[in-house]
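Fold this complex.
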Amino acid sequence: MNGADNRTTLTLTYVVLGMAAFITLFPIALMLLNSLKAAPEVIRSPLAVPEEIRWDNYTRAWRDGNFSTAFLNSAILTVMTIILVCGSGSMTAYVLARKKIKSWRLVTGYLLATTTAPIQLFLFPLYFGFARLGLIDNVFAVSVIYCAIFSPFSIMLLRTYFLAVPKELEEAALIDGATHWQVFTRVMLPIVWPGILTVALIVGLNTWNEFLIATTFLQGQGSMTAIVSFFLFSGQYTTDWGQLMAGATIVVLPVVALFIFLQRRFIEGMTGGSVKG
Amino acid sequence: MASVTLSSVSKSFGAVKVLENISTEIHEGEFVVLVGPSGCGKSTLLRMIAGLEDITEGTISIAGQVVNDTAPKERDIAMVFQNYALYPHMTVAENMAFSMTLAGSSKAEKERRVREAADILGLNDLLERKPKALSGGQRQRVAMGRAIVRSPRVFLFDEPLSNLDAKLRVAMRAEIRALHQRLKSTSIYVTHDQVEAMTMADRIVVLNGGKIEQVGAPLKLYDDPANTFVASFIGSPAMNFMEAEIMDGDGGRSLVLQSGAKITAPAWCSRPSGTPVTIGVRPEHFLFGQEGVEMSVEVVEHTGSETHIIANHGSQKIVAVTNQRLDAAYGDKMKLGFPTGTMLLFDRETGERIRE
Amino acid sequence: MHRLYLIPTLAINLSIILLPAILTIALAFFRWDGISQPVFVGFDNFQALAGDRVFWRALTNNIIWTAIFLTIPIGFALLVASMLLLISRGRILLQVIFFLPIIIATVITARVWQGMIFNPVSGIFGWLEQFGIHLTNPLTKTATSLYGVAAVDLWHWWGFLAVIFFAALRQVPAEQIEAARLEGATFFQMLRYVLLPGIKSTIMLMMIMTVIWSFLVFDFVFIMTRGGPAYSSEVLSTMAYRLAFYDLNVGKAAATALVISLFGLVATFFYIRAQAKDGDL
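Structure:
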């Protein structure tokens, strides 16, 4: 539908949408605005323009939040998780999409069920098990947990990409002399590459932002992620809201920048599973 | 180059039998077309020859060797798919060379062979393009180029022209045929289009309901069909069929149509009086003149070179073709003579030809 | 051969999810502090839960949460999504804006709302005081704490729904919409008779997901109130977390986790059925 039927409807539409946009942007704007103010100024009025721009909020937040280490941890964790999910997930998605095994229905059903499994259902034994194995504060071990949690939905998403590839391409490759593994790596993977990128983005975003697992398994000073670090740091310095908002901005900035740059892929990927054609 | 032998090949999907006891031989260098209505099992048969489907029973041999348990890549065949199956992430050249890449051929060798194939098909200017940037006809050519590059023992074509528009289809038909004359490669071509079969094949295998109806050269099938199915499937407009009964009378044997009209029976017809038969007459064999069975004209179509007349005789619809320019209008009465010499008779029950 | 492709996924999934999940079910029948030998206690943990006022409070809160999230964000998102369909300029920009909150980490969102909105000193609530408008921080009152947290989650959540619904609405065939316009349908008639029926399956799916997620809600509650004050905003998952890691009562925590899963399981059943109906299974 292009254009409303009359001016009143159209005006009303823009007013409602404008208000919705305002509500959405308002807290974000407050965060940015106050991240540049000194603490007393924030208290005077959170809405006022800063009298003096305090860039040092950012340097202090970076130091107090221990972000050099935390960002590195977050980055390692995110990259590891992406590799694990995309590597294992694409193989599984291919096999399930092409019904290569007799039990594909069972496996698909099981994975769908674990998509919605509550973390608490497996969290406690997992924590005490990891503790016994000395895997607490181990970024690599946690990336395996993330892989387990994010894989099911990633596989379901990747599956739709594999389903869209014509079967004849596989057959053509088989006749061309490819082994099954070559069909997968040289023909299928390059074709579903956009899907893998989309999954990588979403898994990356979720890993970067994840709270419950990170705060439970990564509590050590040297192993915590940016999110956990900000959580602890924001609990300690609750008086200097300028510095706190600077810290918040530092943590969301990479995510928001990437999102704005690749918004179409993000939105497609995150809404993809819910909208049926 | 190699021959392909099918002996007692059957295929079932679960309890459903799609092919039953297929035996035939495709000779070295021959161009054989498998034709039949959709669901007759022709594509399945082709895919079994390719090794993409298992063989439930019987054997398939290439060059005398049974290949039932041989993987597709070891059969040394090439296949052109209906939707071309070009790899979208590779250029035309990469697509054509992919089989050689997998086999680990040298770069120079690949280049040489791709170049050769591209020359034959006129693809030289397109080698660096991706399939997305090609037209339907060009994609078709690349798909064939991919097959040629391998210089396989057998070429398989799975309805390769059905995604093209009518004009391009006719052009590509001739091109594939010319290519075959040049390469002299054993080719098996699947189509549902009998015109394609007639124009391209050295020999045609007509399939119906998972069984072979008849095998033969195009004109042999046209002139001498084994049964009503082949007779009706081959030829366009299709053969006319009329139910009749053999009757002995004063003036010799005749065939009595359901309307009661009498036609002189062919002299060779030796079945007893009272036998129910089906008469088959090709549209162009009707005799336009003063004698014959009276018809009421329904539609007259002028193609320029021919006139098609669709007429009714009682409840029976008849299509007749002549290269005269006839003037007739809806409702006009017209007499069509039945040609005793070219008329075919079929057993009404089994549909089999009644021969001399 | 292709079975091997599943090994990494299944090995990780079974060892991280299935095995611990089975252990959780077992632990629900034991008394365990996480360190010493577990002691089998039968249904004691469940009995303890049934007699625990906090448990009933948490369960009630989860149900209230579900009711809120089944109505307010879905309704608002549907309105906004269908309005996006009406306009021709600014769609992409608005979509990007509405999508922003879901990609911002929960900790960040929580702290921004706590400090910049609810806080009586540094936030908008404090600023409004100058104009004689007196608003208390909802997170500090037992009567309002749950709703305060819910408000933040609503902000975080509704835009994502709106974008999903908009994507679904765009797949309603244009001819249907045009036909309705020719027949003189108003905006709300269009919504009622053409658009909403056209995206029914998406709405259903999101409602099922809402039920599942509402029983899993953890981050915002844990970060902003830790279930307080006086357990007024406690939900089942924060309760389970507290039981396991603060009270070291892992058996009771496991029992709580089972209750959460039970609700999830019912919704998951409908979720899988919805997916299967769409030909995914």
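The longest strand of chain C covers residues 30-31.
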